[in-house]
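To the wet lab folks,

You asked to see what we're planning to order before we commit. Fair enough. Below is the target structure as tokens, and below that is the sequence we designed to fit it. If anything looks off to you, flag it before the synthesis order goes out.
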């Protein structure tokens, strides 16, 4: 049986796995974006305790392997009485993990915004939270489009680790097909090309956004 026929015969199963990968990526990245904005706010807060909390979060999750966190959540949560669907568990864990990276990317953008912007916001009576939300973060986002895009690509690739805890994404689907056909090269090359196309599309979109939103100084 040719490599192409193997892929075509199992295309429905691989397609279902790809859809799950899309779901994992979209949901976990959206959650990471929200949580990452909160982490960024903690990191730039004028309150020392909040800054320390944000720093501890970033240091903890940037120095722990995602696979370890997935395994701990998948096997540990039932031990304390928390039952959740593997897909939901994977989404939450990946979002919490990627939030540390998004928070740092946003913080670098905040640091690139002129201090005068924040001072002007406070001068017209805005609180720290209001100035961050309405003045600083919108400008910071325009400077970190490419880094955020890179984190989106990293999130897409990291979703493959969810296969280790029972989520039938593209990687798990490819593994199941290989167990039947025993032709790993065409099967996993095909899966790898699908991941590559997602990454290329994300890179193209973020590149266009970066050029459109660039701030000329």
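Sequence we intend to order:
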């Amino acid at each position: 049986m040719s490599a192409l026929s193997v892929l075509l015969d199992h295309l429905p199963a691989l397609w279902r796995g790809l859809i799950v990968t899309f779901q994992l990526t979209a949901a976990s990245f959206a959650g990471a974006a929200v949580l990452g904005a909160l982490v960024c706010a903690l990191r730039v807060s004028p309150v020392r305790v909040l800054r320390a909390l944000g720093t501890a979060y970033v240091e903890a999750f940037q120095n722990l392997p995602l696979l370890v966190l997935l395994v701990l959540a998948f096997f540990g949560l039932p031990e304390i009485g928390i039952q959740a669907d593997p897909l939901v568990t994977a989404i939450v864990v990946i979002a919490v993990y990627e939030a540390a990276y998004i928070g740092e990317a946003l913080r670098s953008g905040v640091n690139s915004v002129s201090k005068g912007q924040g001072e002007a916001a406070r001068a017209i009576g805005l609180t720290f939270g209001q100035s961050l939300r309405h003045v600083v973060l919108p400008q910071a986002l325009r400077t970190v489009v490419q880094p955020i895009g890179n984190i989106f690509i990293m999130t897409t690739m990291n979703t493959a680790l969810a296969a280790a805890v029972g989520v039938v994404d593209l990687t798990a689907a490819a593994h199941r097909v290989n167990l039947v056909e025993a032709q790993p090269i065409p099967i996993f090359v095909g899966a790898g090309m699908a991941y590559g196309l997602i990454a290329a599309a994300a890179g193209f979109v973020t590149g266009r956004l970066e050029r459109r939103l660039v701030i000329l100084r």
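Structural context that might help your review: The mean pLDDT is 84. The radius of gyration is 20 Å.

Thanks,
Computational group
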